[in-house]
Write a structure and sequence with these properties.
Layout (H helix, E strand, L loop, with lengths): L3 H10 L4 H15 L3 H15 L1 H14 L2 H25 L1
């Protein structure tokens, strides 16, 4: 894990507003504590709340704050969620 000073520097470089900074910290916490439902909820809601570009920036910032193992877990969970959404859309047809 990075030092708190380095973490703060990374977050500052993204120029997030206060709400987005807090969101990023919840996002990171949902991954490190292995809470897939919360992680997917935050991932989806960040896109709805601020748009895809900001949601991707939040995800990108998280990649710098997380260990490789944690980020791999998050990516696997996100991939499963994407597959479930695709399946849901197919079933709606």
């Amino acid at each position: 894990m990075l030092s708190s000073k380095l973490q703060a520097s990374i977050i500052k470089s993204y120029k997030f507003n206060l709400e987005q900074k807090l969101w990023l910290m919840k996002y990171v916490e949902s991954i490190t504590s292995r809470q897939p439902k919360l992680f997917i909820k935050l991932l989806n809601e960040s896109d709805e709340r601020w748009g895809t570009e900001t949601a991707l920036r939040i995800h990108e910032a998280a990649t710098y704050l997380l260990s490789r193992k944690d980020m791999e877990w998050g990516n696997r969970v996100a991939e499963v969620a994407i597959q479930l959404l695709r399946l849901e859309k197919l079933l709606e047809r």
